[in-house]
Amino acid sequence: MPPSAAFVFVVIPVSLVRPETTANVMAASCHVRRGHNEWVAADKVMTVRGDAELVARAGHLFTGARHEFVCAARDLDTWSLPDARQSVARRLPRHGASGLAVKKLFTPVALADEAARAHLREVVTNGVEVRISSTPLPHETIVIDRRVMILAERDGPGSREYTVTTSPTLVNGVYSLFAAAWDAATELTAYLRGDAPHLDDDSRAVLRALGAGYTDETAARHLGLSLRTYRRRVAELMDALEADSRFQAGLRAGELGLTG
Question: What is the pTM of this model?
Answer without folding.
Answer: 0.60
